[in-house]
Every structure is written in structure tokens, then in C-alpha cells.
Prior knowledge:
This protein is an alpha/beta fold. Helix content is 43%, strand content 15%. The chain has helices at 14-27, 40-43, 52-61, 73-82, 105-114, 128-131, 143-149, 161-170, 184-187, 191-200, 214-217, 226-235, 249-256, 277-280, 284-293, 302-318, and strands spanning 30-35, 48-50, 66-70, 87-89, 118-123, 136-138, 154-158, 175-178, 206-208, 222-223, 240-244, 261-263. The strands form 3 sheets. It has a 4-stranded parallel beta sheet, sandwiched between helices. Strands 6-5-7-8 form a 4-stranded parallel beta sheet, sandwiched between helices. Helix 4 (73-82) links the parallel strand 3 (66-70) and strand 4. Helix 1 runs parallel beside helix 15 (284-293), helix 3 (52-61) runs parallel beside helix 4 and helix 4 packs across helix 16.
Amino acid sequence: MLTFQLQKEDTRSVQELQREIRRLAEEKKAVILAHYYQRPEVQEIADFVGDSLELSRKAAQTDAEIIVFCGVRFMCETAKILNPTRKVLHPNPESGCPMADMITPQQVMALKEKHPDAMVVSYVNTTAEVKAVSDVCVTSANAIKVVQKLPARKIIFVPDQALGNWVKRHVPDKEFIIWQGFCPPHFEFTAREVKKLKEKYPDAPVAVHPECHQEVIDMADFVGSTSQIVQFATTCPAQRVIVITEVGLKHTLMKKNPNKEYIFPDSMNYCGSVYCCTMKAITLEKVYTTLRDEINEVTLPEEIIERAVIPIRRMLELT
């Protein structure tokens, strides 16, 4: 099982801390949501583990009094936007998303002025303020489907160039203006690495996240979001699968089907694989203190919530 070193801010064992977090969650009527890229020990105490789309749906549907969101900042903001009467807590407020910071609402508005006949499609990996000036949001799981259903012929796609180009490939009848943002961890994967893995494991299909470089995507047998990769990798006939995405997903893959081998590219990074440092900055100790003291609450201006919820709801309706 994949493990990350637990940061010893607390003297209790991992299991003791996990039990105490679950006790607090029950006592405070809190729900704990965690992204697939979280540390394994954090995933284990979550009520639900999923990708951005799945977590958005859970955040919108929950009747829990407190939402503890183990993910990066834009995910916590999305939970607050979809369920504004609930208290949303972020165990590590410094955990942002570099991709989300690559586009500002002012830059979106400038694009809209330049292309007034275009619709703004905003990847969910954006700030609440960017969502507020967008026409519709998408995730990597539903981007193609949503864009196909939009009435506009011209699409402004922000901020991820890789996902934008992937959608463009599948929706050739529309014109795309694609912002040149990117996901740093996914852009670390190279075609050379994938080629070596394919040569070493010729019987293993390659599953790739669409945030990767185009040349990496071109080498894939399957391209999809994290949840779609989970489905493919755990159910395909092959006994081993090469997985090109953040290494935190390995924990879920091994839980769902431990009889397969999941191969992630080697790297000089933490735990020998490509990882998202902002996701991994959330530890059990931070979850515990955040829930115990009910700190790090996510707040947004009411005006931003009212405007940002429109493109998110539109996405959920279209999917």
C-alpha cells in the first residue's frame, strides 16, 4: 500500500488520530470529503473520496452542518458556492492550485470583450471570482459533453491548455480560444517516460489524465478524469496498468482492485512519483485541529456566490 510519511505534529498514532477525527465528525455532524490525490491516511478518514465533479455533487447534496474539505482551495470554494448555508472548513488554507492562479477575472473579461460572440468555459480548477464571470464550468470528466451541448460556435476555454486542446480535438465543429495555463504535476510527465514504461511493460495499457502534454495523451490507450481512470484501470482485462496521473490515486486503485498492478512513472519527487505538493500538504493533524476548533472557515462574498453558482449549476444540469 502506498504510504506517505505522517508529519508528527501530534504524538498519537495514525490510527488513534483517525479514530478521534471520526469521533469529532460524528459529534459535530460533519462530513469529510477528500480528493483522490490526498495522502492515503487522509483518504481513509473521509466519508467520500472522489474527483472534482463527484465532490461537487456531494457538497451540493449533503445536509451535514460542517463540510471538512480535504482538497485545494478552489474545491473548498466550490463546496461553499453550492451549499452556502453550511460551514466549509479547509484543513490547510495555503493549499491552492497553481493552475487556478494562472487566470484572473480581469483576463477573462478582456477575452470576452475581444470575442463577444464566444461562451466562456471555465475548468472547475479556477477561483470563485473566475467562475463568477464564466458561462459554464466543466471538469475533466464532463468537458467534452458540456461543450458539445453549448449553443455557441466559439468557445473561450480557461485556464488549462491541455484539457482545452483535448476538448477541441473531440468537438471539431467549434472554434476555440484556449488560455495557456497548465497543471504543473501533470506537465511533469513526458512522452519519453511513457515510452520507456510501454517498452518495459508491453502488456500494460496506458491510462492518461487529459491535463498531460499532448504527446503523452497521444500514447494513451485510455484518456479520462481521475474517476474515469479508476473505472478503467480496475476493470479492464489487463493485469497491470500504466497510470499517468498524480500518485495519490494509487491508494484508491489498490483498494478497489488489489489483484492488479498499477505502475506510475518514477520521478525524483516525493515517494518516487509525481505528486501535488499542495494536496499532500493536508495532514491528519491539520484535519484534526481544523475540525476540533472549527477553524479555517471558507468565506466568499454573497455576490460572488450568487454569480459563481450559475455556471456550476449549468454544468451539473448539462451532465
